[in-house]
């Protein structure tokens, strides 16, 4: 079946630095990728939607200059957390839809970001 | 805007007990409905989904869900749970294929052997 590889799975960074998270569709072309943030014991909150070759659409309240999303190819989307602060510590999950099956959503394993 | 409400935050059951997890959504139009499971340390996996047709949907691992339009509900059921069903369960909706899923807060299921 469809597989989405997300890495790193865990990252610890210092406050003020930037962190890049990658999300790759391994065996399908992902026309659309979604980035979520999950707080402990809470839901997955949609951060942004990215379509290959175009700018990401951010949800209200999500700082686009802080959470940079790039979807340069049909198999790769990246989320860069710039100038990270402790409050950015969270679990980030990507999801992708296959251009041949827009009803199917494949999720990455998530990235646990800790900013110290 | 769509929203999803899962009433049970944490459910504790013994093996062989029956399970029902509640999910209600808020949206005025046609929706697609999903249930996902997340085992510890793993990615979200689709249990089942409903787009149209028979409101009783059967999924993997013996799970099923019933769409009741009048109640805006899509409850997940399993007649007899196993210890291996211990996981986090998420209900999700979208209004159109290919658009973002909106998730409920999730329900933690703990099954004791």
SSE topology sketch:
The complex is a heterodimer of chains A (116) and B (113).
Chain A: E1 4-7, E2 10-13, E3 19-25, E4 30-38, E5 44-51, E6 57-58, E7 67-73, E8 76-81, E9 90-98, E10 101-107, E11 111-115
Parallel strand pairs in A: 2-11
Antiparallel strand pairs in A: 1-3, 3-8, 4-5, 4-9, 5-6, 7-8, 9-10, 9-11
Chain B: E1 3-5, E2 10-14, E3 19-21, E4 24-26, E5 32-38, E6 45-50, E7 56-58, E8 64-68, E9 73-78, E10 87-94, E11 102-103, E12 107-112
What does this protein structure show overall?
- The model of chain A has no long low-confidence stretch (mean pLDDT 92).
- Chain A has 116 residues and is mainly beta.
- Helix content of chain A is 0%, strand content 59%.
- Chain A starts with a strand and ends with a strand.
- In chain A, the strands form two sheets. In chain A, strands 2, 4, 5, 6, 9, 10 and 11 form a seven-stranded mixed β-sheet that branches. In chain A, strands 1-3-8-7 form a four-stranded antiparallel β-sheet, with no helix packed on it.
- Chain B is mainly β.
- Chain B is built from no helices and twelve strands.
- Chain B has strands spanning 3-5, 10-14, 19-21, 24-26, 32-38, 45-50, 56-58, 64-68, 73-78, 87-94, 102-103, 107-112.
- In chain B, the strands form three sheets. In chain B, strands 2, 5, 6, 10, 11 and 12 form a six-stranded mixed β-sheet that branches. A four-stranded antiparallel β-sheet of chain B has the order 3-9-8-7, with no helix packed on it.
- In chain B, β10 and β11 form a beta hairpin.
- At the A-B interface, β4, β5, β9 and β10 of A face β5, β6 and β11 of B.
Short description:
Chain A has strands at residues 4-7, 10-13, 19-25, 30-38, 44-51, 57-58, 67-73, 76-81, 90-98, 101-107, 111-115.
Give descriptors for this structure:
heterodimer; A: 116 residues; 7-stranded mixed β-sheet; 4-stranded antiparallel β-sheet; B: 113 residues; mainly beta; 6-stranded mixed β-sheet; 0% helix; globular
């Amino acid at each position: 079946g469809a597989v989405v590889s997300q890495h790193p799975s865990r990252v610890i960074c210092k406050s003020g630095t930037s962190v890049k998270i990658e999300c790759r569709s391994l065996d399908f072309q992902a026309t659309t990728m979604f980035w979520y943030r999950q707080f402990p014991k809470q839901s997955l909150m949609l951060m942004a939607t990215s379509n290959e070759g175009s700018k990401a659409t951010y949800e209200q309240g999500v700082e686009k200059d802080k959470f940079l999303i790039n979807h340069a190819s049909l198999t790769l989307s990246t989320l860069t957390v710039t100038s990270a602060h402790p409050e950015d510590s969270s679990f980030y999950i990507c999801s992708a839809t296959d251009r041949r099956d827009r009803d199917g959503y494949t999720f990455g394993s998530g990235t646990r970001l800790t900013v110290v | 805007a769509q929203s999803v409400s899962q009433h049970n935050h944490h459910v504790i059951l013994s093996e062989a007990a029956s399970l029902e997890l509640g999910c209600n959504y808020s949206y005025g139009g046609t929706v697609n409905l999903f249930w996902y499971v997340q085992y510890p340390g793993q990615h979200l996996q689709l249990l089942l989904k409903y787009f149209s047709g028979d409101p009783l949907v059967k999924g993997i691992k013996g799970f099923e869900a019933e769409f009741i339009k009048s109640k805006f509900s899509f409850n997940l059921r399993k007649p007899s749970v196993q210890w291996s069903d211990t996981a986090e369960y998420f209900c999700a909706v979208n209004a159109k294929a290919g658009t973002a899923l909106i998730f409920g807060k999730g329900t933690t299921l703990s099954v004791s052997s």
